[in-house]
Structures are given as C-alpha cells and as structure tokens.
Amino acid sequence: MNITESITQTVYDQIANALVEDGYIILENFLPSKLTQQLYQHVSTLPKQQFKPAAIGRNNDRQLNQGIRSDQTRWLSEETPCEQTYLTVMDEYRRQLNQNLFLGLHDYEAHFAHYSAGSYYQRHTDAFKGKSNRVVTTVFYLNPEWTQNDGGELIIYQADSEDVLCRISPQFGTMVIFLSERFPHEVLAATRDRYSIAGWFRIDRQP
Length: 207
Description:
By secondary structure, the chain is an alpha+beta fold. The chain has helices spanning about 5, 10-20, 35-45, 80-100; strands at about 25, 50-55, 70-75, 105-115, 120-125, 135-140, 155, 165-170, 175-180, 185, 195-200.
C-alpha cells in the first residue's frame, strides 16, 4: 500500500471542512514518520549552494529584500525519491480538494525553506485577491526535538486585522494549511536552523 492509499477519506474531509468553516487547519503527524524523517535528513544535508536567498514578488516583480525576509529556499522536484513522494501525496490532496470543494486547483508547487538562526519573514500575504493563482498555502515542518525556547513560530493573523489568530511552533511533522488570500502571517526568528516545506495549490489563472 502506498502513502496516498493509506490516507483515509476522513482526513481529506476534515481538511475540506476546516477550510470552509475556518479557512485553516493544523495537523500533527501529517505524514508517516519514516517519510518525514527522510525529508529532514535530505534537506538538512543538501549542499548549501543549492539554496538561494528567497525573493519577494513573482516574475518581473521579484526582488531580494532581506529587511522583509532572510530565509533561503530550494524548489522541490521529482528527481529525488522523497521529494517525489511528497509531491505525489500533495497532488492527491489537490485532487481531493477539487472533488470536495470544486476549487479548480491546477497544480502544486513547493520549496524547502531554511531559516538559519536569526532569520525571519515579516508579515505578508501569499496572494492578493484576484492578483495571484495561489489559492491554498501549505507549510510542513521538519524540525526534530523543537522546543518553545527555539522560537521560529508561524504567526497567523485574523484577516484585515492586527489580532493574532494562532501561533504555531514548527514542530516535526506538523502541517499547516490555510487560504492564501485570506490570512496575513509571519515567521519569527529562531535560535537554530529551522526547516520546512512551503507549498501552494494553484489555479490556472490566465492574464
């Protein structure tokens, strides 16, 4: 049995219902621990030159601004087995979200994010209404034995507000899923290396 076959319909329904009712969901132990461990071992041993300073904006508007974000990223591909498995699992979630919510999600893109000690990403929104093809954001954490003193929390704000909706520690195996246009969020600085996979389910929005 492969991983996608092992995921129950209840989990797919839980995610769909949460996105409708709340716009977000936090899931612990999202993947089998063996795959999560493989992803961590893989990302934590990648050559440093494979990571690039993260930019803000897209296409012609992309620019580096370390006053806003100071993490480094590397896009996932299907060339490495554990990356391919992760992308396959997320593509099945894409199919299930389309089936349950008729979102018209066209594809899924994702990158590893490495925040070295002191790195951060100031408050931002992953998509602006009607301006982006990103619809649903995912963040999967790869940080074994993370403690509260390590910092690095993801802060999600109420829509159009300064009020904090939730504060999420980047614990190993935790997945956060939320509507890209709805929630401003930020990543606080950590005291040690912090790894995650940030991804987006997208629609094929034509210019």
